[in-house]
Amino acid sequence: MTNIEREYEYKPKLWVLFLAGGFFALGIPISIYAASENRGLIINGIITLSPYQAGIFWLIIGAACAVFVLLAVLTVATRFVFKQRIALSSTALIMPKSRFSGVEKLIEYKDINSLSVSTIQGQTFLYVLHSSGKDTIAASMMPSRATFDDLCEALAKKIL
Fold first, then answer.
1. Stretch 132-154: mean pLDDT, rounded?
2. Which of 56, 81, 106 is the last residue before a domain boundary?
3. Which of 46, 81, 116 is the last residue of a domain?
4. Rounded-to-integer distance, Cα 99 and Cα 82, Å
5. Is the distance from CB of 149 to CB of 156 less than 8 angstroms?
6. Do 54 and 42 belong together in one domain?
7. Taking 90 as the threshold, does the pLDDT of residue 144 lie above it?
8. Residues 46 and 101 occupy one common structural domain
9. Does residue 49 contact residue 57 with C-beta atoms inside 8 Å?
10. Mean pLDDT across the stretch 9-27?
11. Are both 23 and 72 inside the same structural domain?
12. The pLDDT of residue 2 is above 70
């Protein structure tokens, strides 16, 4: 393997996972309570549900909340189980193969066609377009915005 010149942690922030998991965990008993009420539901004056249909609707909302809680728990577990990083070596960009994997992939600098930074609803991403496809690096997964900017700058210098 080539020499690692720079290495950055790449993992979700714990406070975000706990906040999201807690939010959806609160949604479970609330939706169960709403499902147990014998009332209909009108959504934006467009959709009218009978009491039976409203109960099913709230149970589906509760099930969706439970799935999101499980995803938050899985993400917390993978955060501790897998050491995910983004690294710059002398010849390649090294990054996680997937969000829930400890396997890394190498993208040779010579194979990178372009880099672009995009901000979508306050979330900033670095898009790496290369001969094998397109990969995305989220600024929110880096330790800080300054670290993300440093990665973007260093990677841009490598592919010039």
1. 96
2. 81
3. 81
4. 10
5. no
6. yes
7. yes
8. no
9. yes
10. 96
11. yes
12. no
The backbone torsions φ and ψ at residue 31, rounded to the nearest 5 degrees and listed phi first, read -70, -35
In which domain, by residue range, is 93 found?
Answer: 4-12+85-159
Q: How many domains does the chain have?
A: 2
Same domain (yes/no): 74, 107: no
First to last CA, the chain: 22
Taking the CA atoms of 13, 19, 23 and 25 in sequence, report the sign of the dihedral they define.
positive
pLDDT of residue 1 exceeding 60: no
Tens digit of pLDDT for each residue in 115-131? 999 999 999 999 999 99
Token duo for residue 148: 């993300």
Whether 149 shows a pLDDT value over 90: the answer reads yes
140 within 8 A of 123, measured Cβ to Cβ: yes
State whether 21 and 54 are in the same domain: yes
**How are strands ordered across the β-sheet holding 92-96?**
4-9, 85-89, 92-96, 104-108
